[in-house]
C-alpha cells in the first residue's frame, strides 16, 4: 500500500529527448543494465512518451497475464504504419474488431496445426534441396554461411507454403531480397524521432534520411507483393486456392473485416506480416542454435548422437521423428533463452490504468518486456551466460506463453500466432542439418573466435555470417 504512493523508479533524462540517448545500439542490453540499478519496473521517458520496461518474469506475468486486457493494444509508430499500410496487418493493428477477426481468419487459414501439417511435403522438398546444396559445399570442402542457408530455407518454405510461389527464379534475386528484409527490420526496429519528439521529430527524420529510407523500403516491398499478386492472376479450381487467393477473393467480394472494407492494402499488409514476422525469426533462431553448438562441442556431439542413434540411416528426419528428440528440443529452448529474436517483444500501449508491483501504470504509456534480460536473470537461471540445454531436463518450462521465464513468442492475447509454424520450421531444419553433417571450424579458428555480435536495433539476429565447414556424416 505504501508503495502505491511512490513514483516508478526512473533514470534521470535530458530535456526534450528524455532517456532516448540511453538506449544505445542494442536497447535490450542497455535497458538490462539500467534495470539492475532501477529494478524490474522502470519508467523511461522516450522523448515525450512514457515507457515502462519490465525486466522480471514476475512483472511480465502481471502485465501479460493478469492485466493483458488493459494493455493489449499497440502504439501507432511511424515505421510500422508505413510498412503495414496504416496498421492494417495483425502485428501493428490496435486491439479492435478488425484485429480480432483478422487474427481468427489467419489462424484458421494459415497458422493452424492442420494447415501447417498439410504443407509438410513442400517442407520435405525444400529441406532436401538445402541438404543437397550443403553436400556440394562439403564435397568441395568449402565453408557454408549458415546465416544465408537458414534464411534461404525459411524464405522458400514461407513463400511456397503461405504465398504459393517458388521464390527462386520467380521473385527478386536472393541478394536484393535479403537486403530488403534486413532494411525493413531495421525500419521497424529503430526509434523514429517523429514518434517521440513533438513538433520537430519529423524534421529530424527527414534530415537523418530515416523518412526517405522508410518510404523506399515501403515501395520496394510493395513491388514485391505486386509480383506475388501477379502470380495469382489466374483463377484456380475450388479447393486448390492458397492463402493469397483467399485474400484476393476477400478483396473482390468487398468483404468487411471488423469495420474495414477489405482492399488491396489489407492484402499487402497481411503479406508483410507473414514475410517479416515469419522469416527472420525462424532463420535467426536456427543460426543462433548453430553458433552456440559450434561454440559448445560437447553439446553438438550430444545432440547429433541423439538424432543419429535414434534413427540410423535416413534420407530425411521427418517432423514425426522430431517428437522423439528430447535433447534437440532442449537445445532449441536454450537458444530461445539466450537469443530471443524479439528481445523486447513488440510494444504494447496501456488502455486503462492498472498496477504492477503496486506501481500505477497510466493509460497511453508504452510497455516493453525485456525477455532478453529475463533469460539472463540469475534468480531464475543458474550460470545464466552458459549454454546448458540440460537445465530444461525434467523442467515444465516451455515457450507456449504460460512460463514467464521463457517468453520467446510473447504471451497473452498478442502471443505469436505463427508459433507452431516457426517452431516446426526451426526443429525440422536443425534436425536435418545436424543429422547429415558434422560441422567444423575453419582452419586456424578456435571456438572462442566465433563472434556472437547482434544486429543493431530491436531484432537481435546474428550480425555477422557464421561460416562453418560441413563434412557429410554418411561418408564417414
Ligand atoms: C521462431 C520463430 C518465431 C518467433 C521467435 C516469433 C516471435 C514472436 C514474438 C516475440 C511476437 C510478439 C509477441 C508479443 O508482442 O507479445 C510475435 C508476434 C507475431 N508473430 Fe511471431 N515468431 C516466430 C514465427 C512466426 C511466424 C512463422 C509467423 C507467421 C508466418 C509469425 C507471425 C507473427 C505475427 C502476425 C505476430 C503479431 C501478433 C499480434 O500482434 O497479434 N511469427 N512473434
Automatic annotation (TrEMBL):
Entry membrane topology: Single-pass membrane protein
Family: Belongs to the cytochrome P450 family.
Protein name, as recorded: Cytochrome P450 71B26
Record's subcellular location: Membrane
Entry keyword set: Heme, Iron, Membrane, Metal-binding, Monooxygenase, Oxidoreductase, Signal, Transmembrane, Transmembrane helix
Gene3D superfamilies: Cytochrome P450
InterPro entries, per database record: Cyt_P450, Cyt_P450_CS, Cyt_P450_E_grp-I, Cyt_P450_sf
Organism: Camelina sativa (False flax)
Pfam family, one: p450
Cofactor needs: heme
